Amino acid sequence: MEKEAKIYVAGHRGMVGSAIVRALTRQGYPHLITRTHQELNLCRQKEVEDFFACEKPDYVFLAAAKVGGIVANQEALADFMYENLILEMNVIHAAWQNQCRKLLFLGSSCIYPRMAPQPMPESCLLTSSLEKTNEAYALAKISGLKYCEFLNRQYGTDYISAMPTNLYGPNDNYHPTHSHVLPALIRRFHEAKTGGLKEVVCWGSGTPLREFLYVDDLADACIFLMNHYSGNETVNVGTGKELSIRELTALVAAVIGYTGAIRWDLTKPDGTPRKLLDVSKLENMGWSYKTELADGIRLAYEDFLSHPVRTER
Prior knowledge:
Shape: globular
Largest sheet: 6 strands, parallel
Order of helices and strands: EHEHEHHEHEEHEEEHEEHEEHH
Structural class: alpha/beta
Radius of gyration: 19 Å
Mean pLDDT: 93
Helix content: 40-55%
Number of helices: 10
Low-confidence stretches: none
């Protein structure tokens, strides 16, 4: 990307979008285009078409999405599918209509089959059934990355997709039930510590294995891919390291300084048993993560303490 190019970051107020804006600014890209939801509703096709026709961005980072944890996904299946499908199709189609030179679409590791080989290579996409607890979101994201691929094949565009693992970091959503596991744990243990609680209840069995990536590392990877990758196949972005939810819980408690008991609520769902990305494709291009999990959790907790708690996106 040329330093003087016009770059649109969709979803710049979210955790991922704000990290991409920070990274672009840090790397010296001065012409960034952003819009709040109030200024531009990405679910309204006419608004999106008018915006692209007026601004004509050279590059687009599509980080806008309706996101949430297991409970949020289960409670709003239709909303998760509709809103994500509509906004991503509107943005990608308008980018193509207005000769956007390159677009990066951000998906999620939940697009891969529930019982995918571990670690999960990009090639396992659509080889078997999805995890039911986030099926609606996954189907929407698969549609977005496939639309990018089909535009490339039919019209010769240069639209790419990146599939990050579980993310955390500054500007996260800390809703007590609708957030993802790591920010939910940060809030839960902070409130238990400050409230003097002797016990914290955590969901599920604690046995599922998960991988976590600090969001600023993802942003760095997105810019790297925009500058160094073209292709129809998505690219996994992660650390290549995993730990159990039980181990993660103990780590968060230690960082926050909570010393009480932890009880597991087996009536709550675990989700996919294991989710580890095969990141060899990206590593072979020359990129790897920088932030170790314990350090990233400390940074995320500092951000949590320094800002009002974000409870809804």
